[in-house]
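2024-03-11 09:14:02 INFO worker-7 job=invfold-0412 stage=load source=structure_tokens
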């Protein structure tokens, strides 16, 4: 018999025309694995080639990671070096005057800095520690005593004195006279000659609302601080001439309330004017200077940690900025830096993403326009997405289940892979999943929605034009989390299988072929079921089920009897907090295999099918931070299935298949603030599979266009 099924998050596509097996790429920001909890990033050339490299502070690992650049916007795997306890900030400078960049790291918990001298080949010597004040938070390098040797100023979050370390010129330092700021909570420090006397001055952002300017005496000491009010909880400060008058100005990133960047124009005598403020959004975590449109006027990039946003402010040359442009990046961005990572003359952006354990790269396409995925508003809490032709125009449309809005959004596909504005339909309470199939045999796709707080499934019959009738609700088990449509009794009608999270079961609702369904029949599965996939696992022509059980860390396999009933579950172990399961032939042996996304283990588990309804022991692959949903598709057109895994840290992980059931190391792409559900379809008719990812916050769907050659 021919199996008929539709999965709520998965469209499996075979090899796609127009692709030739190249490494997979998407029109989206790329991310690269760093260490654990990246919190600060700096750019430099560490190995003597022409390519920009990265140093990343791994705040959870007491280490830094060095990522050498390839010159094409990609980076080699990280190499780790130990530093002090709880590192929070990094700069690069040549502190021993050998022409090779060195690395200096502030270690908050060990109250010191680490100096790692560079060897010039991309490697570094072991860290040497120098004591500072309590909880060092930021560092600036400069020749503060005019002896031709780089010195360091280290500001501390705790205490009221800032440390000066005078350089000996050989990479070692001696203690200088400390700066008595008289205030605690110093967050950031920068240096420049603010009064044009040839001596370096300091600006320190600290406390609740203030920044302090300290004019340098040229001997490693500084005058008393002059205090300026700049905004709420200033978190970062940079120096540049923003209005083209040859006088240095200040830019301060303010973390709290609305989140803003304040510009204090310099008077040239070491004093500054009242701040000009650009409101962005909460919470600003860092700022950096760049010239993204190559007009010679300083621009600013700011990171916003709560919403995972990046803001680009292009300067007008008078101290003000054009309307900020917003880009989404990987989860919890904490630091930002600028560099030309493709050697094309355009400045790109790198962001340290703490929750995703990665750095995200935004490549500049020129004129301050950066590559990104297309985003479309849906409804609050978009948690799953499915694709299908809802209006008969042969273009895939999208439907999202919006958990926070108690409804779904329908986005009709348009030319060029774009989508029209969403149309909302009410369902039950807290819908978590949606499936599309023709339930009444009228050749139009209908929808089934699992409502987790109503314990129901809503059926919305399609009119064939992309609109839907009033929903009809059917009782399911407790807390429905997922739904698929499949013909489980060989009568030619689509039936429903619902995952009942609260009752540790699946419910089978047999379809009558007229858009109505019979009562639910329950089958027990493992603890905390969250996702389901279907296929003929035993090659008997009867559909079987695989259910991901999150609390148990298992997959429950229920073999079908072909009459709408199922056998007792057989349990297979994967890894902790499994969130989803998908089915497909991963090794071209004609048998259906399984892949699971394990949220708690940051992995994907592959279970090769034996063809008799049993599966081999799971093989696990790293899949980035917090995997949630997984889809199977040949994304690069080499005839081998690949994996796309959405993650709660803002990324989609791509694992390219080798065709034998094994997979290559994951590559990462930015896909929204909190990507959850994932679907695959050819949205613009070019023969390539594209990704659509449901983004819970702020409630949207992100479309990643496949740019694989």
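2024-03-11 09:14:09 INFO worker-7 stage=emit residues=709
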């Amino acid at each position: 018999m021919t199996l008929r099924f539709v999965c709520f998050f998965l469209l499996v596509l075979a090899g796609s025309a127009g692709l030739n097996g190249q490494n997979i790429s998407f029109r989206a920001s790329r991310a690269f694995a760093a260490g654990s909890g990246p919190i600060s990033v700096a750019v430099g050339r560490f190995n003597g080639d022409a390519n920009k490299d990265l140093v990343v502070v791994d705040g959870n690992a007491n280490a830094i990671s060095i990522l050498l650049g390839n010159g094409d916007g990609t980076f080699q795997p990280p190499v780790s070096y130990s530093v002090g306890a709880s590192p929070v900030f990094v700069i690069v400078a040549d502190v021993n005057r050998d022409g090779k960049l060195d690395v200096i790291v502030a270690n908050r918990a060990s109250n010191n800095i680490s100096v790692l001298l560079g060897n010039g080949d991309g490697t570094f010597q072991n860290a040497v520690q120098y004591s500072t004040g309590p909880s060092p938070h930021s560092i600036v390098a400069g020749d503060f005593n005019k002896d031709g040797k780089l010195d360091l100023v280290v500001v501390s979050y705790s205490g009221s004195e800032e440390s000066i370390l005078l350089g000996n010129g050989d990479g070692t330092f001696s203690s200088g006279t400390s700066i008595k700021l008289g205030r605690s909570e110093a967050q950031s420090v920068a240096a420049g000659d603010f009064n044009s006397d040839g001596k370096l001055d300091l600006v320190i952002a600290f406390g609740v609302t203030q920044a302090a300017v300290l004019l340098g005496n040229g001997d490693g000491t500084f005058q008393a601080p002059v205090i300026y009010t700049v905004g709420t909880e200033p978190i970062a400060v940079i120096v540049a001439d923003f209005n083209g008058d040859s006088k240095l100005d200040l830019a301060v990133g303010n973390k709290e309330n609305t989140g803003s960047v304040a510009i204090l124009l310099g008077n040239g005598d070491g004093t500054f004017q009242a701040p000009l403020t650009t409101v962005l959004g909460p919470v600003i975590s860092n700022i950096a200077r760049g010239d993204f449109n190559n007009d010679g006027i300083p621009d600013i990039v700011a990171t916003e940690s709560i919403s995972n946003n990046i803001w680009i402010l292009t300067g007008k040359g008078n101290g003000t900025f054009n309307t900020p442009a917003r880009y989404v990046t990987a989860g919890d961005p904490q630091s930002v830096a600028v560099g030309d990572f493709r050697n094309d003359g355009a400045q790109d952006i790198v962001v340290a993403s703490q929750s995703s354990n990665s750095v995200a790269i935004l490549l500049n396409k020129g004129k301050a326009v950066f590559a990104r995925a297309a985003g479309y508003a849906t409804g609050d809490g978009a948690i799953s997405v499915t694709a299908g032709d809802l209006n008969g125009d042969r273009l895939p449309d999208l439907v999202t289940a919006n958990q926070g809005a108690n409804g779904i959004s329908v986005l009709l596909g348009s030319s060029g892979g774009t989508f029209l504005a969403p149309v909302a339909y009410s369902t039950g309470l807290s819908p978590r999943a949606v499936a599309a199939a023709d339930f009444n045999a009228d050749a139009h796709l209908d929808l089934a929605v699992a409502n987790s707080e109503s314990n129901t499934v809503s059926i919305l019959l399609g009119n064939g034009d992309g609109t839907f009738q009033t929903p009809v609700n059917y009782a399911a088990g407790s807390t429905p989390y997922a739904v698929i449509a499949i013909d489980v009794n060989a009568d030619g009608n689509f039936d429903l299988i619902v995952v009942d999270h609260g009752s540790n079961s699946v419910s089978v609702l047999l379809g009558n072929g007229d858009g109505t369904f019979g009562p639910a029949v329950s089958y027990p599965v493992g603890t905390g079921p969250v996702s389901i996939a279907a296929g003929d696992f035993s090659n008997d022509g009867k559909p079987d089920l695989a259910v991901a059980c999150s609390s148990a860390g298992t997959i429950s396999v229920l073999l079908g009897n072909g009459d709408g009933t199922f056998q007792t579950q057989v349990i297979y172990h994967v890894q902790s907090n499994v969130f989803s399961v998908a089915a497909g032939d991963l090794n071209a042996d004609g048998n259906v295999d399984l892949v699971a996304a394990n949220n708690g283990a940051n992995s994907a588990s592959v279970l090769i099918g034996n063809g008799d309804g049993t599966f081999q022991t799971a093989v696990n692959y790293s899949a980035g931070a917090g995997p949630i949903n997984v889809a199977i598709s040949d994304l690069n057109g080499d005839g081998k299935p690949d994996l796309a895994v959405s993650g709660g840290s803002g990324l989609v992980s791509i694992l390219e298949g080798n065709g034998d059931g094994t997979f290559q190391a994951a590559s990462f792409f930015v896909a929204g603030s909190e990507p959850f559900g994932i679907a695959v379809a050819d949205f613009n008719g070019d023969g390539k599979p594209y990704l659509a990812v449901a983004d819970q916050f702020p409630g949207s769907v992100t479309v990643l266009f496949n740019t694989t050659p």
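2024-03-11 09:14:09 INFO worker-7 stage=report msg="The radius of gyration is 28 Å."
2024-03-11 09:14:10 INFO worker-7 job finished
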